[in-house]
Amino acid sequence: MQYINRLRQYGIFVVFIIICLILSLISPQFLTVSNWTIIITQASINALLAFGVTFVIITGGIDLSLGSMVAVTGVTAAMLAHPDTFPVALPIFAGLLAGLLMGVFNGFIITKSKIAPFIVTLGTMTIGRGLALILSKGRPISNLSDSFNFIGGGNIFGIPFPIIVLILVFIICSIILKKTLLGRYIYAIGGNEQASRASGINVNRVKMAVYSISGLLAGLAGILLTSRITTGQPNAGAGFELDAIAAAVIGGTSTSGGTGTMTGTLIGVLLIGVINNGLDLLNVTSYYQQVVMGTIIIGAVVLDSWNQKNN
Amino acid sequence: MPSNPKNILHVQNLSKAFFGVKALNNLQFELQKGEVHALMGENGAGKSTFMKILMGLLIPDSGDIIFEGESLKNSNVHENLQKGISMIHQEILIVPELTVAQNIFLGREINYRNWLNDKAINQNAQELLNLIGVNINARTKIKNLSIAEMQMVEIAKAISTNAKVIIMDEPTSALSNKEVSTLFKIIKDLKAKGVSIIYISHKMDEIYEISDRITVLRDGKYIATKNTSELDKNDLIALMVGREIDRLFPENISKKGEEVFSVENLSTKGKFEEINFEVHAGEVLGIAGLMGAGRTEIARAIFGLDKYDSGEITLKGNKINIKSPKEAIEKGIGYVSEDRKVLGFIPAMSINENISLSSLANFSNAWFVNSTDEQEATTQLSNDLKIKSTSINQKVMNLSGGNQQKVVIGKVLLTSPSLVILDEPTRGIDIGAKFEIYKLINQLTDKGIAVIMISSELPEILGMSDRILVLSKGKQTALLSKQEATQERIMHYAVS
Fold this sequence. Notes:
The structure holds two protein chains of two kinds.
Chain A: H1 2-9, H2 11-26, H3 33-58, H4 66-79, H5 89-113, H6 117-136, H7 146-153, E1 155-156, E2 159-160, H8 161-179, H9 181-191, H10 193-198, H11 203-228, H12 240-250, H13 262-281, H14 286-310
Helix pairs in contact in A: 2-13, 3-8, 3-9, 3-11, 3-12, 3-13, 4-5, 4-6, 4-11, 5-6, 5-11, 7-11, 8-9, 9-11, 12-13, 12-14
Chain B: E1 7-18, E2 21-32, E3 36-40, H1 47-55, E4 62-67, E5 70-71, H2 77-83, E6 85-88, H3 100-104, E7 111-112, E8 115-116, H4 118-131, H5 147-160, E9 165-169, H6 177-192, E10 196-200, H7 204-210, E11 213-218, E12 221-227, H8 233-241, E13 259-268, E14 272-280, E15 284-288, H9 295-302, E16 310-315, E17 318-320, H10 325-331, E18 333-336, H11 340-344, H12 351-355, H13 371-384, H14 401-413, E19 419-423, H15 431-446, E20 450-454, H16 458-464, E21 467-472, E22 475-481, H17 487-495
Parallel strand pairs in B: 3-10, 3-11, 6-9, 9-10, 15-20, 15-21, 18-19, 19-20
Antiparallel strand pairs in B: 1-2, 1-4, 4-5, 7-8, 11-12, 13-14, 13-16, 16-17, 21-22
């Protein structure tokens, strides 16, 4: 009985394994090192966004501006990454800073105005898209330096750099959530905001922190994406926020706040990546892929709520 | 067993188990037409499970419920409502953005071919409200009503369904004394019309005032049914807890020390004005008054949850100006709120995480929580407070009301406060656990902590306080010593 309960707790992990098994039976290419390298590399951008938004969702908030932040930060970095201009550290720094500032802006408006995060970040989503178009004058920015292009396309000891970034960020985010004061307060605020305030927690500061982290990680994702496609695209990242939120929710983060883990989100990210990859291998057209993906998102959440009721 | 013809409801051998634990075990219950039948028992005795089965929210494992000669065993809420069983919930379930009339007729709107007849809805609702003698406009939005008024709306709703049985679960927990008497008048009217009422409450005085018979449950089992007039209070308590409690309040022997805390001319417009009192180490200052007298508002202002307009607050000789609960806690003030579900604890977090929440920085370096130190402290406190749980990692939402309250008190204690404000510390807690909370309060004063205790229960105020501050409509009307205070005197000042 205890064994079954424990399995239930990792329900989504079991689903993940089953889907992997099915895909490996159908397609011999699926379970190969090179295919998994592709899956994880492609999932890395969604992973960074999903880790950031997991913090936000656990506090009971939401961040819809992720995709736009990817575009703004990507364009910002690209503008400073032409060959023989600045050292590569500058575009990276500028991209991260742009993401951080947008996150701070979200946090500031949400905590000061008490307007729902859904509305505020819906606003910044549009503002961000506009900013990206203004900065780039509506055109893609190409001709980037080799050292910048290494970030998204290079390998270290044969491991693609984005995978290394993903692993590092995952570890740091897990530690923040599990071991630090901030992490505990994030859960507390999502679990009961009023009681958190009455317990002496500076609720506004914690909210500022989660939206800032979300912006910072969106900046990192923007840099990775720009480097991988070797172009700063003002239209990049459209709809990325939905994949990130889906990954967090599939991984067991409740949109009403208070629960969720980074491991769950990572599994959510990989599940989405594996399904996309599997449908590619099976030559399913992208139209059908979207239908399948949506069905799986709903199915996963229904399964999860069913599990919780039965516990 | 032949059923008594006077019975409207007859329950036989009802059992219900959750995960192998028997919540109800062969329960017997009879309800006569036109009686007020009190259902008594400690938390966990099975009262709410029983009520949920009666309402059709849960299906029993075995046994039978005969309502007007018909079995209700496999019915649902909708059917039971139509048959005439209605419930007024402890936590009020109405839609705040709708009007009183819209709420009363929710789901049964008067209509002509699906077009709403608002005029008839409003008219009927108003007539209903006038009938039970409450002065509420049927077109007011629910969110603009007081909790007491919402309760009256719930009652009007129950009556409008032509209920033959109304279940009232702690209906007075949010009512002032005056509102309670209005409620009791309504109950008597209902009774005269032949409506039967199942009345659940922890308040002894009410039970004796309003009920005809009392049925006691304990650990899911039927214990006894007695006529209220023939059952002595101590015997009733003995039936409920299965042992005799000789005293309701433990003896307090702590010594009064020096002044710890005082407020001078504390005022907030529209809430309270010119409040003056001081509290000494080892002393319990009781604050009495009716609902809306400004008791909780004063506590919230002191703790930094609300701003106050003017006045001075002094803690240990220093003038302080508190702007947030964080500052209050840092300065040594603890607050246990009247509504622990809203302000007290995080339901999805463990006992450990809840107890340490206010003092987590003490168990951490700049970044990381030292969970070994944390668990050691919370385990110790959990043992001291006798919190009943499977482990300190159990989620607080799975604890009983009394144990949840202990967790909240534990959280406050871990901040090493010099002043603790307890707002309705025993609300919704059963008698056995109440006694433990009282002992805990005495332990606080033993340690030299100054305690302010706000309570609507006069016996509790009288039994626990060294001095009693009485408020009426936001003004301070008396500061009585333990010797001077009687229930009558407190009430006299509370309504003046």
